[in-house]
Amino acid sequence: MDYKFQKNYLDEKSIEWKAMRNGAGIGMAELGAEKENMVVLGADTTESSRAHYFAEKFPERFIQVGVAEQNLIGISAGLAYEGMVPYAVTYAPFLIGRAWEPIRTTIAYPNNHVIFVSSHAGLATGPDGPTHQMTEDVTLTRTLPNFTVICPADYEQARLAVKAAYDLKGPVYVRNARENTPVFTTEKTPFEVGKAQVLREGKDITAMGHGYMVYWLLQIAEELKKEVSIEVINLHTIKPLDEITILKSIKKTGRVFFAEDHNIVGGGGSAVCEFLSQNYPVPIKLHGVMDEFTESGSVKDLWKKYKLDKEGVKEILWKFLSNM
Amino acid sequence: MSIHSEKIKVLEKKANEIRIDLMKMLEEAGSGHSGGPLGMADIFTAFYFHILNHRPREPRWEKRDRLILSNGHIVPVRYVTMHHAGYDITKEELMTLRKIGSRLEGHPNIHRIPALETTSGPLGEGLSQACGMAMARRFRNQEHEYTIYCFMSDGEQQEGMTLEAVMFAGKQKFDNFIGLIDRNNIQIDGFTEDIMPLEPLREKYEAFGWHVMEMNAHNIAEIVSTVEEAKAVHQKPVLIIAHTIPGKGVDFMEDDYRWHGVPPGAGPEDEVKRKDQLKEALRELRTLGGKIEHGE
């Protein structure tokens, strides 16, 4: 499939770097013009989580709840019960972590159509430190029945994802990083919730991931093309899992490398393991935050130390291949 | 909405029938809460038979009053009252409470009975959802077309989430938005004022911009007139502190927190043995606490 990437997308210096949270924020503001029953809720993080694009355009449909994430969830549920389409927007640790049980009871269980849009997912949050670097949100959302979990790969995909979420049913989580990351897709790049994207074909190993990791994987595949043929899959939807696309790829390559800016416990890689271990067991290497609390630091320094930049991911991938 | 003395008598009798069905269904279920449902029986009766603007045969009618039950564990009294009020719940179905496959789950499940408005159970979450519904109503310019009621327990006033919603409702100055606290002074572990004091409850809500009223929740006429007055309050959420007696109507259950979370047949035995608890409860209800000699 031709995904219509940005020109010279593999050269990270020639493409733009923009934040997913900005894409999500702009996407919500654009969608607001079309959907009259769409409401956005903020919890005192309106500008930094980019809900302000919507709030400025549609102040009458923006609800400020203050620093009160449990109430953010309850109000969203109440709105959804009455047929509105609420977008609850704040930092990932507070949005998903603080009020997990209210999410479970008032939204997931009754299958209310509430869209959770985060910023500050993963280490790409930076100097605020581990309290604000949410690395358990995929685990917490995908373990709840009825949830759809989307982790866009870049700014443009985040913009498309928040719009696509409107037409789904039940609770939807759209996970966004705070930091600027490479924008390799365009607004014309096809995006379908639940449909994994084979961005590059290969035959020796399937390298999967979500978020900005996908870009590193594309670069690594290019850099290592003489040594190994890497198939790259953008697993932007963790739930529901695109089992067909995954299986087709794994039957060809016979092994998986998975990278994510998230705890390896319970994340997207775990989701793939759960599926493959029961259906088509193959050797798998999971790479991400290795079940630990990290630290403050610039995003670049964190990426380097925790091996989540391109070089770090490449090193782990290469080690996995060498030990096979 | 005022009420004639004859209708009051009819409703008092109805509340008693509801308590009788409650005792039977709880005993049959083998688990569930006695104290709260018995204490709220008069209120549910007054609401479903006089106060609520609703259509039992069209439970999702757009302009119905919304009744959000935050403390979902007292839902048996709602099931029974809805049965008596003509909703699609049969007498036989009441006896399926908490059993596999039943629509009458231990805590309200909106998938099974849409007329319940929300799925609930975990405490402290109802008022937030009522606030969300009130915002939706405001977006649609329907603030004067129906009333939103949220029933809460007193114990769940200890939840931080309740406080977040109290603050929000005060900010929004909702019209036709009425919270009601079942002030029965007990929670699972004991008396509220020992476990985690709630007083001064009235002043707390007032400080957040609410209009607060109190009532004797076992007097149908007072329930009706209090709600009537509450609906006349303009641009302020209203809290009704409903002074209830937990276990009301069954002497050995009244005001005893040990009856909060158990059905007849499983309660404390110092007054009545377990095997006789249902029989004794029904005898008391049928004779109105011994005031009349023979039950039906």
UniProtKB/TrEMBL annotation, chain A:
UniProt keyword list: Thiamine pyrophosphate
Name of the protein described by the UniProt record: Transketolase-like pyrimidine-binding domain-containing protein
SUPFAM superfamilies from the UniProt entry: Thiamin diphosphate-binding fold (THDP-binding), TK C-terminal domain-like
UniProt-listed Pfam families: Transket_pyr, Transketolase_C
Cofactor names: thiamine diphosphate
Record keyword Chloroplast present: no
Transmembrane feature ranges: none
Domain Transketolase-like pyrimidine-binding: 18-183
Family affiliation: Belongs to the transketolase family.
Automatic annotation (TrEMBL), chain B:
Keyword Nucleotide-binding: no
Source taxon at top rank: Bacteria
UniProt domain Transketolase N-terminal: residue ranges: 13-273
Keywords: Thiamine pyrophosphate
Co-factor(s): thiamine diphosphate
Annotated PANTHER family: TRANSKETOLASE N-TERMINAL SECTION-RELATED
Family membership: Belongs to the transketolase family.
Name this protein carries in UniProt: Transketolase
Organism field: Candidatus Spechtbacteria bacterium RIFCSPLOWO2_12_FULL_38_22
